[in-house]
Specification:
By secondary structure, this protein is mostly helical. It is 56% helix and 0% strand. It has 16 helices and no strands. The chain has helices spanning 2-36, 44-52, 54-73, 82-92, 99-106, 112-117, 120-124, 129-132, 136-145, 151-166, 172-188, 194-203, 211-219, 230-239, 241-249, 259-263.
Length: 326
């Protein structure tokens, strides 16, 4: 009798647990749907729910990115924003298990990474390996070296080095040495425009040790002076440590601490501005002559002081100046 009673209690508890699990999974389905339909307004409550249910949410967010990647590879661009928000949330949650799915997505060929993630490529990607990768240098090196990747993805790989220097995880000297090794290969391959992008990142480190190599890049017309001039590189070297401190102080934190704070100023999630597609930045152009009508051209009235290369662009795009109107 007692045995039957205890058995009934156990079965009842199992039923309750199963019901609770079904309820949570149903709620997760609704939360993912809310992320997917988010436009003009961030789904703050859905984001908060994910934070409170990390263990349940992380595998589903990874699944969302993998599904979007598979769809993009098959020529089916996802309509919603769940995969876009998933990359930010997985970074905020420090979900290291998500890194392979994120890398698979951003390493899609051609324009597909931007079709999926738009400006997140140039505002977030360099900040992900420092917090999600066990060996961030290996990840960054692979991004830089892979000629099949989108040029902006490779640029983000180079920029990731600056986050590691700023965070004290590698020295300035080691970063210059390793980036110079990449630059040597890029010059030998005449790899334009990634050569110029690498020169731009090296310039943030006052790269005296790599000046001869950088001069070669300019002499062979592989470094775009519209992105950074030879004179600016030499200025960085002349200012030395003070230049490096100033440049690195403008970088945002590695990873993301708060997805809402990160995205609340984006036009795509602003109820006060027209909804805009999150698109890739234009090709770097000469500072002296931005193309007429370019939506990222500097406003008519520029700030009185020169905008730093790693500061937000004055056009309001949210990207760094050097990756926008710079």
């Amino acid at each position: 009798m007692n045995h039957t009673h205890d058995q009934d209690i156990t079965e009842g508890r199992k039923d309750i647990a199963a019901g609770a699990e079904d309820s949570l999974n149903s709620k997760l389905d609704a939360v993912i749907a809310e992320l997917d339909s988010a436009t003009r307004k961030l789904p703050i409550k859905a984001i908060e729910w994910i934070r409170e249910h990390r263990e349940l949410a992380v595998p589903r967010l990874i699944e969302v990115i993998r599904a979007a990647t598979a769809g993009a590879r098959a020529g089916e661009h996802p309509e919603g924003n769940a995969h876009f928000l998933a990359m930010f949330l997985l970074t905020e949650l420090r979900a290291k298990e998500a890194l392979p799915a994120i890398l698979e997505a951003v390493c899609l060929p051609g324009e597909l990474p931007f079709d999926l993630f738009g400006d997140a490529i140039t505002s977030l990607l360099a900040r992900i390996p420092p917090v999600l990768a066990d060996d961030p240098l290996e990840v960054l090196d692979n991004l830089i070296a892979n000629e099949e990747l989108n040029e902006y993805v490779r640029w983000e790989g180079a920029q990731g080095y600056l986050f590691l220097v700023r965070d004290g995880r590698i020295s300035r000297e080691e970063a210059i040495e390793r980036l110079a090794d990449h630059l040597r290969i890029l010059i030998d391959r005449a790899d334009v425009p990634v050569t110029g992008y690498l020169v731009s990142e090296l310039a943030s480190l006052a790269p005296r040790e790599a000046l001869e190599l950088i001069d070669e890049a300019y002499d062979r017309d592989l470094a775009d002076p519209g992105l950074i001039t030879r004179e600016e590189v030499k200025q960085s070297i002349s200012e030395g440590e003070s230049w490096v401190r100033k440049e690195l102080s403008r970088f945002p934190p590695s990873g993301i601490d708060d997805t809402v704070a990160e995205l609340e100023t984006w036009a795509a999630f602003s109820e006060e501005q027209p909804a805009l597609p999150i698109r890739k930045p234009p090709k770097p152009v000469s500072r002296a002559a931005p193309p007429a009508g370019d939506k990222h051209s500097p406003p008519a009235e520029l700030p009185k002081r020169k905008t730093g290369r790693n500061e937000p662009c004055p056009c309001g795009s949210g990207k760094k100046y050097k990756k926008c109107c710079g």
